[in-house]
Amino acid sequence: MILGLAAILTQLLHLALVLAVAPLLVGLVRVVKARLMGRRGPALLQPWRDLAKLLRKRPVLADGATEISRAAPYIACAATLFAAALVPGFAQGMLLAPLADMLLLAGLLALARVALALAGMDVGTAFGGMGAARELSFSAFAEPVLLLCILVLAMIAGTTNLDAMIVAFREGGVGLRVSLALIAVALLAVGLVENARMPADNPATHLELTMVHEAMILEASGRHLALWELQAALKLLVWMALLSDIFMPWGIAPAGAGPLAWLLGLAAWLGKITALAVALAVFESAIAKMRVFRIPEFLGVALLLAALAVALLFVSTGLA
What we know:
By secondary structure, the chain is mostly helical. The chain is 70% helix and 0% strand. The termini are far apart.
């Protein structure tokens, strides 16, 4: 009974935490990038102010918009929020821990991607269709990389459940493996493309001919635009939390722990997310955007690294 209440409480606290932290994460990246460029930049809370302002406004739809444009932002935001609920933050053993399967996580992110692409194509504008076509073509490279990485993690940890993976990696039973280093690079590459970060995309430039993700939401406004912005922030947080859980699994409160362990886990989780956000800002400030036609090559390298990781793992398992 007590464990059940603790699982429910940690799940609710985790949901509240990701909803509060996701916009702040975007604000932190913007602040660090502005400081690195010698500018004052926006305030840390500016993404929350923008969301609050947009949520008060009624969305304006184009004449040719269908129910897809109305439902897509809610579907994408709900799917991404569900994915964020599955990825452990400050504690393990949450209510949805049995459902925290890596394949389900990949499916939820794919559902949000499809909803975004459908919203971009629904109105029939040139930019929306262009962005949707590019998004789906990039996903043809990104999703196999993610699946191969999940295969490697499942072979090493013996499960696709994220909670069980964290326990296996934290206890050190898997040892140091070259395959883990290869999929870490591959997942970083996929994460950059999935979140429209440099060098794969740069929504801050507002150049329609080079945009990918932002081109699909040019027609969004009001509450719909707020949901798209929140969904993008949640997806960035999901990827950072996923990378920290797999490759930096220390500090997370184990299942059944008390409030003191939760506080320590919260401090560790916030520290890791902050470190990853600063690293992302430094990386984006130090590298130039590649041409959009080079992104398949960029993801192709990630696919080769993931395939090499699978091959090395099979060879090492056979020799053992």
